[in-house]
Amino acid sequence: MKGGKDMKRIYNFEENDETYVIFLEETEVYTINKDNLKVDGTKFYETFFSEYSIGDSIELKKGNSVKNSNKLSIAVYDTISKLLNEIIQKIDEEKED
To answer: Is 67 inside any structural domain?
Structure first.
């Protein structure tokens, strides 16, 4: 993990007809196929935490393509956001020990 001191990364969660897509700036960094909603844990960890350091922060913002009326899209967004926060918490706890 090799982030910078107190580095903040802001990701955007978007959707299209076939996938949920997470962008860092304008770059697509992670996709989830709507047909099966599978998350590849290894790729997920590598995408978000390969350069993470204690003190860094990760924020996931809901993009304009995600409508509040679409309950499945909101549930996927909430789940990914929660997963990111739980991993950050675990990493921070392990470093304290």
So the answer is: yes
pLDDT, residue 92, reads: 81
> By residue range, what is the domain housing residue 36?
8-96
- The Cα 35–Cα 78 span in angstroms is 18
Residue 54 pLDDT: 80
The list of the chain residues with pLDDT below 70 reads 1-5, 96-97
Count the domains in the chain. Answer: 1
| pTM of the model as a whole | 0.88
Q: Is residue 45 part of a domain?
A: yes
C-alpha–C-alpha distance, residues 57 and 65, integer Å? 24
1 in any annotated domain: no
